[in-house]
Amino acid sequence: MKQRLPSLLAIRYFEAVGRNLSFTLAANELNVTQAAVSHQVRLLEQELDVKLFTRLHQRIELTEKGLELLEVSAECFEKLADVTNSISKGKRTSRIHLSVSPLISTHVLMARIGEFLDAEKDTEVIIHHSLAPPNEREAPYDIKIFFSRTIISNESFEFVLQDKLIPMCIPALWRKNKGESPGNFLKQTGVVHEFDYQWWESWCEQTGVDKNIVRRGLALDDPSVLLNAALLGRGVILGSKRFLADRLRAGELIAPMGEQDGVDIYYYLCTNKTQRRRDITKLSAWLRSAITDLRHE
């Protein structure tokens, strides 16, 4: 009997959104518009007559049915890719699923991943962008690098890098309000948030600035857009002291309130304990080395 299946395109778009927990990151990964992704997911929900995501303020979560579909669809896409890759190349290529934040992807992987791929020509690395710590709702991964706002004591998570989020803006904004106290400066300029108010509120707690001052402005869910907003003069962001150091050195951005007060970020590496493949061990070692080099820059 012929089986009735939903649109493969809709499933593909849903899988990308579910894995990233972001329509924006999924659209970037698929190289399509966010509207196209939202449309396909909405059609899939209508066809299945179930709700796959819970839309919350500035974020989404998978429903129980959505999680069930994500687990199956991710597994199917991986198997399909393995088979087609084996057929087209005549030999089986090792595939590693690596989950990282967009900042790690931009500033570490894109700059240096070619070194690893040149040395391991039969290995394919699939990069998934995720801002979430390891959790049961996440699609399967082989290696994950994630960040935490607190130090984690867990032998499964290996500490690899520390960063700090500090206020940054273009020089022109500071020249207009030079000499103002931090609170007055923020009142006079725009404030740009990543996802929600939490990062800025944490900074206010550390510096004694009234939280109400930062509870306004743009809220974005993509780090690259956040940086672009700062460069266009839309306001002050909490930017990565480590990853945006080149922007500070070039004078494109400045730290108007200094570089000492900021929100600490801790990065950890973990591997899927069910996978003990040699290629995963090699990539884990390469990642440690690349991040160690970053720490020493």
Please outline what is shown here:
With 297 residues, the chain is of the alpha/beta class. Helix content is 46%, strand content 20%. Helix 1 crosses helix 2, helix 1 (8-20) packs across helix 4 and helix 2 packs across helix 3 (34-48).
Q: State the distance separating the first and last CA atoms.
A: 62 Å
Low-confidence stretches: none
Overall helicity:
40-55%
How are helices and strands ordered from N to C?
Answer: HHHEEHEHEEEHHEHEHEHEH
Number of helices: 11
What is the global morphology?
globular
Beta content: 15-25%
Mean pLDDT: 87
**Sheet of most strands:** 6 strands, mixed
Strand order of the largest sheet: 4-3-5-10-6-9
How does the helix and strand content classify structurally?
alpha/beta
Task: Describe the protein.
The chain is 46% helix and 20% strand. By secondary structure, it is of the alpha/beta class. β1 and β2 (59-62) form a beta hairpin. 29% of the residues are buried. The model has no long low-confidence stretch (mean pLDDT 87).
